[in-house]
Amino acid sequence: MIDADIEEAKAALRVRAQEQRRQAAKAAGGDAAGAAAEQFFAGVVLDPEDVVAAYWPIRGELDCRPVLARLMDNGQRVCLPAVLGDEQPLELRLWEQDAPLYPSGFGTLAPIETAPLVTPSVMIVPLLAFDGIGTRLGYGKGHYDRTIAAIGDRPRVIGYAYAGQEMERLPRAVHDIGLDAVVTEQGVRHFGTAPS
Q1: Contact (CB, 8 A) for 32 and 171
Q2: 3-class SS at 129?
Q3: Per-residue pLDDT tens over the stretch 173-192
Q4: Quick one: which of 176, 173, 178 has its CA closest to 3?
């Protein structure tokens, strides 16, 4: 399948994936964010020196704020992405305890523009769908793929989603960066990597 065909197939899948995510959120119930956070800390080993990038949830994404809060309480450095433009990588800004957040594109929040820029060793990423081999379906703008590709030492990429967002097989283009693991309210699955 050539890239143009892959992109067309992914565009069609996004419509289905959005509805599937709505249904998955409903099925998972109100404590899905808390359950997923417990799964994250049970199944993802972090080094105290790791910088963890996460996201501010939008559009029905599984809420990773319980993970962010616990990481910060534990003294782990965390950062949030700011959207700079359609064809640019995300800017990853350190979020320090009690620092306010500001609108940063697409309805997300991020630290102020003058916050220190950091390079994460672990990235928790949102998604519309994932499959059993670690393919991630995003919104189609390519922000995360560009950002990860621009980081010299590739970070561990961890999808964060409802279990019901899994699809049988997703198309993957050459530029699509796969997941090392996915965390859901039901558990953690690693894709061809050690759970370190």
Answers
A1: no
A2: strand
A3: 888 899 999 999 999 999 97
A4: 173
Q: State pLDDT tens for residues 1-21.
A: 557 788 888 888 999 999 999
What's the predicted TM-score (pTM) here?
0.92
The answer to whether 160 and 64 have CB atoms below 8 angstroms apart is: yes
Using CA of residue 143, residue 145, residue 151, residue 155, what is the dihedral sign?
positive
Tokens of 159: 């999808």
Burial class (CB in 10 A: 0-12, 13-18, 19+), 190: middle
Which helix (H) or strand (E) covers residue 51, if one does?
A: strand 51-53
Q: Are 162 and 185 in contact (CB under 8 A)?
A: yes
Look at the chain and count its residues. 196
In eight-state DSSP terms, residue 172 is: -
The set of residues, in sequence order, having a beta carbon less than 8 Å from that of 116 and lying 6+ positions away, is 93, 94
